[in-house]
Amino acid sequence: MAGLENLGVQLKPRIAIVGGGCAGLAAAAELATAGLPATVFEASKQLGGRARGLNWKGRRLDNGQHILLGAYGETLRLLQLAGVDLSNAFMRLPLRLVQHQQFELRASRHLPAPLHILAGLIRAQGLTRLERLAALHLMAKLRLSGFKLNHDEALNIYLKRHHQPQKLIQWLWEPLCLAALNTPLDQASTQVFLNVLRDSFARARADSDLLLPRQDLSTLLTEPLAHYIEKNGGTVCRGTAIDAIEICDTGFALHAEGLAEPFSHVVLAVAPFRAAELLASLPELTGTARECSHLGYQPIYTVYLQYPDKVRLPYPMIGLSGGHAQWVLDRGVLDGQSGLLSVVISAEGRHQTLTQEALAGAVAAEIAQAFPDFPPALWHKVIAEKRATFTCSPHLDRPQQQTPLPNFHLAGDYTAGDYPATIEGAVRSGVKCAHLILANL
User: Fold this and answer.
1) What percent of the chain has pLDDT over 90?
2) What is the architecture, at CATH level 2, of domain 297-390?
3) Which letter, b or e, does each residue of 389-420 get, where b requires 16 or more Cβ atoms within 10 Å of its Cβ?
4) Does the pLDDT of residue 259 top 90, yes or no?
5) Which CATH class is domain 2-45+218-295+398-439?
């Protein structure tokens, strides 16, 4: 019996997950749910990758201001699994897109999808009758086609070919594209953009709801998942950088700080440029490494402005156009940090030529122009993620989660899937890796 027990221990899979961002934590949590604990290795002392909180001048900020959608089913499922109370964690708002003093679209709170969006377009403020009809015509066409294209193309070309007026592009389609894909219109994949519209607008009314985090992302997302993983037998190793991965008799040897540890399965859940470096030592995965290294990147800048406590936006999230700022969120309304505004600037643009000090000054001037009653900001903090997401372009070859090397998988928002580089895309990839492992045991 003892021999059989020892044999059972030897045959039990030993799974390593390299990377403690959303994708890696999702894979580990899904495996833990199935009774298969994994070991997560994160190079940083803090989990979350690009979705993490930080302290600054007595405030709790995020490395980037994230907005979730009601359609993010896998993310919401895992958060509930980890014990997060979604009603307290998020401010859930029916879709309302506001471009300050120019445009406003409110989805109906009573009609089912997609009629709730169509009703919002019919009543949209700032559009002429012909502009509303152009938007309705495109939405109807997308619905009839199942949001599928015969051939992918850049979104600006698609919108012009479907006679979308410039004002509609500027106030509706471009802000949605930048928020969802973090890629300029002339480089953005129309098909991936339509995938997001399909899931958000065409299935259930609640799918288009905006979920604005009431807590920083470490408190809301990564720490609950880490606690769930460890509570169910997994291990989370912070501050442990994997330097190399080699094939060995038992599967794979992971090297960290001069030590090597054997595992039967590996989920590589790091940024694609880092993945390319680690894959280079595995001859079977040179093609996969090449796919990772060929990806382009887009930045996201988040400018935090602290005003006196009495300052509040008229709505929790407001769009601005014509300058650097794209979306402004009121952290006072969201998480009680009164007077704190976070300004999101997605994708590449002229803001990248400015110093952080100059960019903060320019954004503060745009806020002052939009809201002339606001007093001057007390301080600012600029967070620049220069490789925040991959460039989500048409016909992009994204690496598969299942690699040519048995028991070796890739997880990350850049891997193959319907979604762009979002939290939901990362979570879906991690969950898929877990299911691939479970299916082959």
Assistant:
1) 94
2) Alpha-Beta Complex (3.90)
3) bbbbbbebebbbbbbebebbbbbbbbbebebb
4) no
5) alpha beta
